[in-house]
């Protein structure tokens, strides 16, 4: 970390600041120039409060040289992490094809969709049991019963399942769930992240609507710093001024996250675009960008879904998409 | 709610959709024109899933005519709500001057600041005990001990206190807290909102970093629909591309929220700007825009705060600010 | 266009508005429901000022049913437009591989790069002569001399050239330029667009930093409405809160623009990301998303470029990228 | 300017870079630390291309210590600039109350509005003659005839006038215009800015929809670097995800611009909010934030305006607003 002091800072003031920094167990390297003094802070600067330091009257600006995340950082873990979920691997060349309905609605529905997507090449089943909805009056999911139905679909097809948790008090219900999803709105629900860090379940962590990639990695770090290294990052679109799509899918996130971190990165084009006809091109683009997996909504009857049908593919569309994604994956090797 | 059907929709398809809508207990008024058919949906449309309806192949677009929030809606509650907190009233002409440190650090600190801000005209004390921090390695607040110190400061000064909750499991610790704050990152932590709706505590609900005003009101609705009508809305800046300020304070939110809702609206210029020298002009602007209160960070020693010192005023600066805010409030009557 | 009138609007007020609308040569279809009155406006609504209509006291809201652009609209021109540039075609299955340096710097440089990119499969040469720079003190390009050098490179390689215009007074200098580029900052320089609409040159129109896709199409409409139908749309990233990349490349724009318009869409990953190592994955993703072309910066000596070297590929990197893009294009057919 | 070199940079590489920087007439101060080497660049760094420097393989990051703008910079011009327009002064305690219709429509209209706003305290008349419109089919203003009518209104009332230029070729028509406005969409039309810099007319420069405050100041610098120091900055809202208001008015811009620059800052709440009922509170907030002026749309018959009526006040509303703004200005002294 570098702190640049303002012109006119006295020797005494500089000494006072250096002494304060050394109390935080940092080595400080002072470099006096004609127009400014630069302090180089060496040691564990992840605990230094940059905003506080910047606020001091004698400080002109502060700049981090190293990233504030450690366990998620590729520098300290150069090889790709591979997350094992049942028989399925994600990351390091292994591709997750996650598909299923937005919401679990009935036993018939979830088993039918699970069988269809498995046949078309999906290796993980998704389905919402607890649904975060903007309105308290909207359908909030089948909750516990939904998880039970997902487990039946898992039994029927052998597919591992991923579903969203909204509240740590529901954790017991997720005992047999293979991957626990943290939704975009909970990406900075730090207490939830910490509790999930105490489990050993793979966690699919979605990027928040207005969060930077560094913040996403800091949220992964919350989970990892508690001992759980099984984190899968998920890009699902950010909020911009564009209104034609629900959100703006940021595919450069795939490369940037791979550069900064060893964790696998999957892409959810269904929530990002909100329109089923945009899902196939964005899924293919994600594969071409090097994503470690795709997560798409598939429904057996899109026109009657209880929620979000607008963004779901039919099984036939998913089948075709899967073929194209595989061809692209072969093309980029 | 209006649904516009595409050109070429058959009579049979229209009848099918109308019948489906009537099953949701809606009256449907069909209007056939030369180029389109318009369905007017009448009844409780707050439960209708607009995205699902939009997704149907025969539907061109869907438009809400009435807002999806009810209890927070000024239409059904024309008079300003006045929230009572101890001896203090907020809203309907009553102004909350909320001040205190970002984090509670020690008994001496919090009592000293509480006394100073009381003397300068604050009527509510703020202070963070549980601190949401981007990094798991940053100071996370004094937690339970912090709340105990806030209660001592309340005892010493008589000021009601407001502090942030991050997890519903900590609710018992807030028994003597006067106003429970929900932070920006938890604005859509719906399970937390629902549980707070079951209490009768005033809730200070902060707008999320990338949330619309309608979403803020829907989150208020989550609390109110469970029975707790004591919601105070708080504008604290949204995230934009501008980097000079931490966030962009959206002061038009004050007028818009007053137009749409009867709930009081307070403004937090400290978090919005992140720079103490920008706090006074933005606090004065908030008062001029008609805010029902201001929430500012005040510290007895800004240069040594454990966190966020960059955005805190000194007691002397707060004293001057309070005088100016009062003068502006007199000017706009 | 649909206008929804407020509850309580009188018969007289409605009649007054209907008469005003009919004066604009619109047919008006009035539909009275229990809770609202809906006016359906039929005819050439592209000239109706939605904001004005919305502002009338009796109007609750206004909604366009048809898009405000016509000549750029796929509805009225279902087949893909194919733009001919010398021997090169763009759109309708024809792919533009546009490459070259950010700025033209010398005859040696531009000819060397042109030969290298041609050998690696580029079919159009790009190069900046007039450079829009945030600072008046930064290098503003070689201007007229730069265009002369581009023309020499065209002569040497046979590649058609594309370069940016900043001011209509420079149009004469572009007589032998094959494609005139309008940069992001000039996307809504309407006077420039109108003048370019009076030429018959292909125009490469870049999306503005904060413009919606509909606004981009309206700017294309400015050019087309003056008679020039040779417009190529270009997605080059939008401004968001993310700071790791220079801008956020919005690849869903490719599919959305293809859906709404018949014009070809190319993608510029160099300006979008600002980092050369992110260019290949984003170029491949663009190809997988169905783009009609890619525009990338290539430099023979990235470490010494006068500007923007950070985002330029070496010729060897471009060569490899071209192979991968072709493989992806084969995979998605 | 500070450049931080990567770990592992060799002595030779460092020497090579230092020599290159010295060729740009910079002094370089090298500071070697245990974990990094820091170069301090001293001299005229405004011409250094930060992106190029950052792109070099041995450079970890680059940070400006001083702002890239000079003539607009308060550091080199500590006192507020006061811009003289006829008998009216703006800045340094002098307040501009600019009012008038969105578009000039007729002699009767503009003179009637001019007289009304003058009587209510306006000291400058605004009115659009050249109108930038998203659609080529929308009303584009009365153009030259509109300017002639504005001049008649100036003659009738003595009010100086401000109106927008869209194209440098129209400059002759502005010979008797008092203040030339550059609209948000042309904020980075650098050729236009340079030409305006060669005049001595006061220029009202509006912030672009997605531009940072530093970029606004760099655009002011384009004008000033050509010799014209009469620049008035204007905040008029930025584009965000919020849809209730047309744009999001960023009032912290007033304080930030005053901190960074000596130029006067006016606020346009009409375009920012797009709703006349939000104009008075935002105008008052702007005054409380310390703005040097307000620019509001006033129309004698809002329900029949040819454009933008939604955001215009009636003369009576403007009269009341002016009283309130004056009271606030007295309160903040």
Helical residue percent band of chain A = 25-40%
Q: In the residues of chain A, how many domains can be counted?
A: 2
What is the level 1 CATH name of the largest domain in chain A? Alpha Beta
Taking pLDDT < 50 over at least 5 consecutive residues as the criterion, the unreliable ranges of chain A are: none
What can be said about the biggest beta sheet of chain A?
8 strands, parallel, barrel
Global outline of chain A: elongated
Count of DSSP H/I helices of chain A: 10
Report the portion of residues of chain A in β strands. Answer: 15-25%
Write the layout of secondary structure elements.
The structure is a homotetramer of 333-residue chains.
Chain A: E1 2-5, H1 11-23, E2 27-32, E3 37-42, H2 50-55, E4 59-63, E5 83-85, E6 88-90, E7 96-100, H3 107-119, E8 124-126, H4 144-157, E9 161-165, E10 179-182, H5 190-197, E11 203-206, H6 213-224, E12 231-235, H7 252-260, E13 265-267, H8 269-273, H9 279-288, E14 293-297, H10 315-332
Parallel strand pairs in A: 7-8, 7-14, 8-9, 9-10, 10-11, 11-12, 12-13, 13-14
Antiparallel strand pairs in A: 1-3, 1-4, 2-3, 5-6
Textual characterization of the structure:
Four copies of one chain form a homotetramer. Chain A is an alpha/beta fold. Chain A has ten helices and 14 strands. Helix content of chain A is 32%, strand content 18%. In chain A, helix 5 crosses helix 6 (213-224) and helix 9 packs parallel to helix 10 (315-332). The longest helix of chain A has 18 residues, at 315-332. The model of chain A has no long low-confidence stretch (mean pLDDT 91). Chains C and D meet through helix 2, helix 5 and helix 6 of C and helix 2, helix 5 and helix 6 of D.
């Amino acid at each position: 970390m570098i702190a640049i002091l303002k012109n006119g800072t006295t020797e005494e003031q500089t000494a006072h600041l250096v002494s304060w920094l050394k109390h935080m167990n940092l080595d400080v390297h002072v470099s006096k120039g004609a127009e400014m003094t630069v302090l180089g802070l060496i040691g564990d600067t992840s605990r230094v409060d940059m905003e506080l330091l910047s606020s001091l009257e004698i400080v002109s600006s502060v700049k981090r040289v190293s990233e504030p995340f450690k366990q998620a950082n590729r520098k300290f873990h150069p090889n790709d992490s591979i997350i094992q979920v049942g028989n399925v691997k994600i990351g390091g060349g292994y591709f997750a094809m996650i598909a299923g309905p937005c919401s679990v609605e009935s036993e018939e529905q979830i088993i039918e969709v699970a069988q269809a997507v498995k046949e078309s090449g999906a290796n993980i089943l998704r389905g919402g049991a607890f649904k975060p909805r903007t309105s308290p009056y909207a359908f909030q999911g089948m909750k516990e019963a939904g998880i039970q139905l997902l487990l039946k679909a898992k039994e029927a097809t052998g597919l591992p399942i991923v579903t969203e948790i909204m509240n740590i008090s529901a954790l017991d219900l997720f005992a047999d769930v293979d991957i626990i999803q943290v939704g975009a709105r909970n990406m900075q629900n730090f207490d939830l992240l910490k509790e999930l860090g105490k489990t050993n379940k793979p966690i699919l962590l979605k990027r928040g609507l207005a969060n930077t990639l560094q913040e996403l990695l800091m949220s992964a770090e919350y989970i990892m710093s508690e001992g759980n290294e099984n984190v899968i990052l998920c890009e699902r679109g950010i909020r911009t001024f564009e209104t034609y799509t629900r959100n703006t899918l940021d595919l450069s996130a795939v490369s940037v996250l791979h550069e900064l971190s060893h964790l696998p990165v999957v892409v959810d084009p269904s929530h990002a675009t909100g329109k089923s006809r945009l899902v196939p091109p964005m899924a293919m683009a994600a594969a071409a960008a090097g994503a470690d997996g795709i997560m798409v909504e598939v429904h057996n009857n899109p026109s009657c879904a209880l929620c979000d049908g607008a963004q779901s593919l039919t099984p036939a569309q998913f089948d075709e998409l899967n073929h194209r994604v595989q061809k692209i994956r072969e093309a980029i090797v």
